[in-house]
Design brief:
Blueprint: H1 6-23, E1 38-44, E2 52-61, E3 75-84, E4 89-95, E5 104-115, E6 120-124, E7 134-136
Antiparallel strand pairs: 1-4, 2-3, 2-5, 3-4, 5-6, 5-7
Length: 154
């Protein structure tokens, strides 16, 4: 039985490698996030918003922190300025996710939008379209020792 030559094997690998990568799922805001990561939130306004100066936001941990993470950060915030794609479409970076973030699902609580030379408007509750929770993983745990004794001396 004759086996294919090295050139044939290289050609087969060159064809199969891109196909296997195409089948892998892409990272979304709900998978694969942890300390040091960030993600982009895309915002589409119903009507043109030509004079957007700033966008800020807060995502809040849903439920309680896991054991050993009670003192960790429990919010994610927008960082940097918004990027305008056109008068209705903006994007903003969320993160960098801190090293001491509590693991769990984070829900968007509010978005503030400021207009150049105008006021700031807060979108929250019913003003926000539904957005899937952002899942953050962090295996780090930290336990503080209880204080055993305190005293003062003259």
């Amino acid at each position: 039985m004759k086996y294919p030559g090295p050139l044939f094997l290289l050609l087969a690998l060159a064809i199969l490698c891109p196909v296997s990568k195409a089948q892998q799922s892409t990272m979304t805001t709900t998978t694969g996030l942890g300390p040091g990561n960030s993600f982009t939130m895309f915002i589409t306004f119903q009507n043109p918003m030509r004079n957007v100066q700033g966008i800020s936001c807060v995502f809040q941990l849903q439920g309680t922190a896991k054991p050993g993470q009670g003192d960790f950060v429990k919010t994610l915030t927008c960082s940097g300025g918004p990027i305008k794609d056109d008068d209705q479409h903006y994007r903003i970076k969320v993160g960098d996710i801190p090293q001491d973030i509590a693991a769990g699902d984070y829900k968007l609580v509010w978005i503030n939008v400021s207009l150049i030379g105008e006021a700031v408007h807060r979108y929250e509750g019913a003003d926000l379209p539904t957005l899937a929770a952002v899942s953050v993983s962090n295996p780090k745990r930290l336990e503080f020792s209880p204080i055993k004794n305190l005293e003062t001396k003259p």
